[in-house]
Amino acid sequence: MRPQPTRRALVAGLVALTAAGCTGATRTVSPPSARRGAVAAAEDGRNGSRVMQILAHPDDDLYFMNPEVRQTIGANDQLVSVYLNCGETGGVNKVPGRPRPAPNLAAYAGARRQGLRQAYALMATGDPHAGWGMQALALPDGTLVEVNTLAGHPGIQLIFLGVHQHSGTGPGRKRGLPDLWADPTMVTSTLVSTGSPVRLSQKVTRSGLIDVLVQLLDRYRPTLVRTLDPDPDMQVHDARHRRHHDQAGYSDHPDHTAAALFTYAALARYKGPGDGRLHAVMAYRGYYNERWPDNLPAQLVRDKAAALNAYGGAPDSCDFPAGCGDYDVGRNRSYRTGWLQRTSLRHPTAAPQVRQAADGRLTAFAVLAGQAVRWQETGRGSGTWTSPEPLGGDGLLPGLSATLTEDGRWQLFAQRIAALGPKAPDNRREIVMTEQPVPGGPFRAWTSLGTPDGTPDHGRRVGGPVVTRGADGTTWLFARNWAKSVSARRLHGDGTWGDWTDLPAAEVQEGLAVVTDGKGCVHVFGSGHNTVHHWQQEYPGGQFFLRRTGLPSPADPPTALALPDGSLLLAFREARSARPLVHRLPAGGGAWHGERVGLVARGYGVLALHPTDDGVLLAARNNDGTTSLATLGAGAAPRWRTIGGAVVGAATLATDSAGRPVLARLAPNATLMTARVPRNRR
Asked: What pLDDT was estimated at residue 25?
């Protein structure tokens, strides 16, 4: 992705700073929406975490990554958002209720950039019309990109690469990011948007775009990279399931998929944050959100809408020449999309796997920089940890599962990018595992367990593995399959694997829960469209049956816990309200019974359950991205208490050698953070 050679001499030294505020217009100043507005410029973005978001279009972050964008801003993390294409579509920035204007690709692209500046300014300062600096930055290979920096807040930057969303002339099909990914010989170009300091069009190729992303990664050295979904669900489109902007046969925009694939290709060459540190990666679902129940509490929906209203803007509300936002989005019109009321991680149950090892020390596993890593307590119950120890894996995705065998050996399971080529046969995912041959020994090389689905395209839709152990020592591995149901594979006691088999069909969200009850029977749970689905064995080692639960509609994946009395506890968030619900299945089976929890909705995402001496501890990601906890069954009404610190993915709970509950989370600076949970206050 380089400037045209004949023009390079004219722009090689271009570093033009301009103001992108709205100084000539009347301003409506909102109350500050984050703590960032009070941070001095010299301290801005210096909280220790560096976050880079790589998107297809302006507004993808506002729809699909918020509320986490807002939380990152409020935490004073460095935040750099990179937009691959202009999102110019047909070039029409229509104001609802007014005549349709003539198409203007450059102006619409520029207006969308101005809308983003307004949204980020609102989230950071409370004033959507705060000023910005605009710069044409030359990367090491000579490529020019537009960099916007919020005035007084150098830790917040927006970077526009400007690739044409649709290129080509005449009546034929226009080509864009998906074609660029699939065709290494394709050459497209950037669009010079109105008001941009980058004033020439540049050639773009597949390899050149990956090079640009690598240069940006190495320049900003993020500890956390966010991107979109590289492997969206397959989707039937009919009268009941509108296609909207989906690509044919899949539940997402084709540009989102391509942007994520370009991101992962660049991450394979990323040198890391420096000083031997590793980085975390999180992918976010796109149009998947309209296919499943709403999962955000009302306050977070309002916050998302406020940012999108600022992005939508209004004509004549600023003095930027291209326009003042993406007008069809403002004035609460984002509510109609089905994307506003939900945010979904591609791997929603990704959390550190923490439990006591055979020697009593807590041991934690997670995925960083595409490989498994291990932390160990320096001593039993010490609360201090070793540095992360890489365990290999090469291309692992979040959502690793860990299990300890009866003789004290760790087994790890994960999903991996097996190949990331331009053509479908060269773009593959697989489930892999490694284990210790002896307790305390080194891990073997990672081996492939394949996927439940035979074709590479189907295999890309498979979810992360979840694992439990049956009464006879058999390891059961489960994964969501391309049909959105569940498949299983079994590791026998003699070390041989059975074939992948499908459980009775029922559509569920990504994110399964598994547990083995007191009789040694395995139970699998998944959140469906209208209820929680439950597969169970009638006897240890037996086949799985799908049992009707009668449970209400869940918003997010469920969490299950086997209790000492033989009963099962299931926790999930209620659809639309995000209120925590807890149900119990008696030891002898029968009907599920609702527990009186009475906790208000906080945050979104999977919950965590863990037994303690005085009840069951419930952990939930809350509205500001930290963790709220409550104790159930302690003889008093549960009430929330909060432990600070942002969570990447989901938090988890464990018990140390002294019997103390411990909360563990991966922080945005890609470090493991743990805290002892205070005893329940009655």
From this structure: 35
